[in-house]
Give the backbone structure.
Amino acid sequence: MREIGVGMVGYSFMGRAHSNAYRQVPFFYPDIPIKPVLKAICGRTKSAVDAAAANLGWAQAVYDFDELLERDDIDLIDINTPNNTHVPMAIKAAQAGKHVICEKPLGMTVAETEDALAAVREAGVVHML
């Protein structure tokens, strides 16, 4: 089974929900050929990120989004931050060659959303959900 390293930014309500969802993938989809591995969770508040990593099953806590993007063991970035930060983070992740999952809404406007999609296409990233 191929593993895919996941890096998540954001640890509040949707970060908790997505963390749980990754852990449940093998139970709900036993035939899927990819296993998500919770490599690192990222946020600004050290104590909160450390607690989220420990409580939600992440291997490491990271406090800088760019550091998350630089890691070779992370293939996918899951964005669970405030809505107005989704597009810049999605674009940066795509430009770093990462697959992107972004909590809705992706953009605050249609134009922003189109910019994010264009960045993903330009980067040649296979998926953006």
Observations:
- The chain is about 45% helix and 20% strand.
- The first helix runs from residue 13 to 28.
